Amino acid sequence: MMRDTNRAASGWINGLIGVLIFSGSLPATRLAVAGFDPLFLTAARAALAGLLGLAALIVFRQPRPRRDDLAPLATVALGVVIGFPLLTALALRHITSAHSIVFIGLLPMATAIFGVLRGGERPRPAFWLFSGLGSALVIGFALGQGVTAAPIGDALMFAAIIVCGLGYAEGARLSRRLGGWQVISWALVLCLPVMAVATLLLMPPSFAGIAPSAWAGLAYVSLFSMLIGFVFWYRGLAQGGIAAVGQLQLLQPFFGLALAAGLLGETVTPQMLASTLAVILCVVGARRFAAAPLTRGENAR
């Protein structure tokens, strides 16, 4: 009993650390795209994190994934290594990070939906009610902000949420058997050849004039957002249960809005806060009717 309690507590701690790290991703990306092209940024962050992930797999002598793991790992890679970073980087050229963070309130719901689709669960009708209401709130927020001023940015953020939700769901399933940090490391390694070549091809002719803040943003999204955050996040999901620890992600919009205001000096309006809170309440309801706890046999590694 004590062991289960300690394991659950460890899962909550690891999950909270992961959410805190991810909360800085959009503000850091906003800083990075001020100096780097979004395509170069996406390739460079994945290549740098991939080299670190490869080194960790070699040092700790991790066995290669099975052949039937390759397709799920490719899904994780396309969702969280390539899709989400690229789409958010492109979006942040059109909208502020404070605006984009409100969309992150849909990420837990997207993860739950893909968990339902991939896991074959049968949620109650209340789940779809909360999911639809949450989506309507986010769309209403975008329209209220003047979607005609930056429709591309909003569309890119919606696409980013979809691919990231799919990547999270696949990663959570794999982490039960492969281990949390191993899943993200293998996904990064899978992309490494392409991302390394893309980094060299997309590299700017000169790095002169790039502000230190842009370099800091690149360093953060490469080391923390792309690798370290997933180490804590997937470990937390495996230790404390996807349903329970996954709800910590609902705090991410609040942490992100605070960072956007404190570090970037962006304006956080009462409407943004109200929209974020309303979406979070909807996601809480949706997750309650959709998620299922891990079994005892699904251990973290």
TrEMBL record:
Subcellular location as annotated: Membrane
Keyword Cell inner membrane: no
Keyword Transmembrane: yes
Residue ranges of domain EamA in the record: 11-134, 152-284
Keywords associated with the record: Membrane, Transmembrane, Transmembrane helix
InterPro entries xrefs: AA-Vitamin_Transporters, EamA_dom, EmrE-like
Transmembrane segments: 12-33, 39-60, 72-92, 98-117, 126-143, 149-169, 181-202, 214-234, 241-265, 271-290
Matching Pfam families: EamA
Protein's membrane topology: Multi-pass membrane protein
Protein family (similarity comment): Belongs to the EamA transporter family.
Protein name, entry field: DMT family transporter
